[in-house]
# Entry
Amino acid sequence: MRFGIDVVATDGQARTGWVDTPRGRYRTPVFMPVGTRGAVRAIGTDDLESLGVEIVLGNTYHLMLRPGADLIAGRGGLGRFMDWGGHTLTDSGGYQVFSLEPKVTDEGARFKSTYDGDVHHLTPESAVDIQARIGADIQMVLDVCPPLPSERPVIESAVDRTSRWAERGRAAFVAGSEERLERGLDQAQFGIVQGGLAVDLRERSARALTSLGFDGYAVGGLSVGESRVEMVDVLGPTLAHLPADQPRYLMGVGDPAGLVEAIGLGIDMFDCVLPTRFARHGMVLTSEGRINLRNARFAADDGPLDPGFAASPANRYSRAYLRHLVNVDEATAARALTLHNLAFTLDLIDRARSAIESGTFETLRAEILDVWG
# Structure
């Protein structure tokens, strides 16, 4: 089945619609919480369901090492393993591997496991096979993600290698389609555009990937230290070279300002650890902006966590109480703040959909940037 997007409304470049999949469909724009090891930290699958989450991202690097792709396959795939009926997406593992400074050749990347020191070799073909065994609805092609800032030759080399790997990864994916269907697995595969902050390299990467006929396209290598202005400046020209009838995914962006800026340019899908990581450190996304509950000014604050967000799952608790839980490292704090931060982010996405449908997205964007910009 071809993954395509059914756009039901636009407002400028911003768009909202549905992506149909063999499992069903999901709305766009969509935010995917990160379930690194098959779980979103501090909360359970039932929480994801109650929050209205539609897709969860799993981390291929960690899952291939613990518990292993074969074990997950033997349990019926990632969704069944974690008792999750919604959609799943796995990254290729490339981002985590490249943070380990692996030995990289045209063949692939050789790296040591952070768990036991064993040496592994990840190639475009093995990334396809591993993700097929993990069994997510969407898998990502293996790419090269250069750090920013990097010299132009480094980024250019990453673009060219990403394109070569994408060609191999796509060929392996297509060749394995029949075997996957026999297993009852109808997966999609997305390509990943690289190019740093160089518009011409982003355009080169986009042209190379779209010629391979992926089911959707991600923009990678951003939100890695550059300013939001720099991200926006390169994102718009990149999207102009991606098909309008397929999903567009911006990897690693989840702050409120970044979300509305990218939605305004036409991005459909997002993932980010920011809401959950912030929660574990007492940082809260609120209608007033970001607050740090560790600050002494909240010690005797009897008000709800976010009075401007009535639907918060954590508003039953006072800021004073939650601050106490954070400061004594009580697990309840991580759970409550994770639920809140995800609910806040998902609500923002829902507001963006509604604003696009009503033609008021620019008003929402200005409102969010006024608080978060």
